[in-house]
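Cast an eye over this sequence plus tokens and walk me through the fold:

***
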Amino acid sequence: MVSAEEKRRFRARHRTVLLTSLAILIAAAALSVDERGRLVVLGVPRAVVPQLCLWRRLFGADCPGCGLTRSVVLAARCHVAAAFESHRIGPVFLAVILLQIPYRLGMLFLKQDYPTSKWIDWLTVGLLMGALAGNWAWNLVF
């Protein structure tokens, strides 16, 4: 039997992932990529999102996540080929985010008894981190 405290933590974790996924989708809807490949807010040419990658600023090279935001924004706007060119993991990342919404809603509202296993969360994070590292290594070698 699952304790009340475990149920509370379980529900809090699912709410957090659900709200984070929704926030990412809202941000992707508010951003677009201009003709120069820069992220802009609400399509306003002067509202350019500044370069935030500390790795690129310090070392002048791409980090494992460079281009991921641009790729997710492009994939959200159904520009899949351009999204893959920007970052190979972006469309996959967007698909995982989209799948989180029905899954988390189902876990919050349809289940009566909650499992205590966190393996799905850890597996998802592990696979995405492995994909980011693998993509980065591929880009460094080729």
